[in-house]
Structure formats: structure tokens, C-alpha cells
Amino acid sequence: MALLNTRAKFRHGRALILLLCLSLGSCPARATGISAGTPFPKVTLLDAAGQRSSLELPRPGVALIQVWATWCAPCHESIPTLLRSLGSDPDVSKVKIILWNIDSDTARARAFLEERVGDLTKVELRFDPGGEQFLRLAAPGMPVIFIVADGVVRAAFSGYQPGTAAEVMPALKQALEQAAGIPSR
Fold first, then answer.
1. Strands 95-101 and 44-46
2. Tens of pLDDT along 71-81?
3. Burial class (CB in 10 A: 0-12, 13-18, 19+), 110
């Protein structure tokens, strides 16, 4: 029983550190800091079946990664809005869309997505219970969106405003053009 209480306290402590980190905009010193032009770090997450595996990014190719949580109020609107924007653009069918959740309860996160989004067949679900891998990214807030082409971060968006999807789309199209070898305009 004492071991169970210790584990629960540890999980709650990690969650508290994550919340403080996100609200203060700074993370522990071990964080890598990630910005445009840097390689996306290797991370190990749980897949939809609950198996631990490395996050595989397309090479060549483009991935859009959104890190989110059910307790993140802006995520409630961000995910459906972004997925609607992506679904309305035929070029985006070439993009690997990864929804990376940091909730401790993966079943609750999945239920949240099924309720808000419905069809999840076009996205890859990944889970980081407690946000340990997320802390390494040193993201300044939630939700956070990364556009990664050929393993390199091309753009990062932190937080959510109603116009965020409109800002993400041009950056995503530019990453698709770069990955296809089309010169930037």
C-alpha cells in the first residue's frame, strides 16, 4: 500500500511540475528547447494500443504534431478547428497528423477525442502519460503545434487563438513544398 501511495504522489508531483512549467513559461534545465530549423528530438511515447515505441516521423515527408491535454481549455477548440481546416485541403492528405496527449488517463483522452472529433482514422494517436517527454521540448504553453519536414522543425505554434488554424495552414503548405523540392515563393 505504501508503494502505491508513493507512486501516486510521484505522478501527482510530476503533473504539478508540468502545470507550473506551462503556466510560468519555463521548464526544467534538461529541456531541449525546440524551434524552427532544429531537428525534432527522438521521443518514446505510447501508441494507440498502449505499447511504448519511438515516434516515427516521415522521411521524406511532413508531419503535423499537436501536443494537447483534456485539462487544457484551449485544446477543446483547437483540435476540432485544426482538423476541420486540414480536412478541407486536399494537399494535406500527404501530411502525417499526430495528436500527442499528455494526460495521465489515456482512456479519458481517447474518449474526449471521439466525442469532439469523431473519426480518428486519419490521425495517429500517441500518449505521454504525465508529460515526461513533453517537458523535454520546453514548449512555452499549451496546446503546441509543430510542423516537421524531413525530421526538422519548420514551424512551431504555442497557445491557441481563433485564427491559429489560418496561421498553421500557410506554414504547412510551405513545409510540403520544401519537402517536395519546390522553391519557396
1. unpaired
2. 999 998 888 88
3. middle
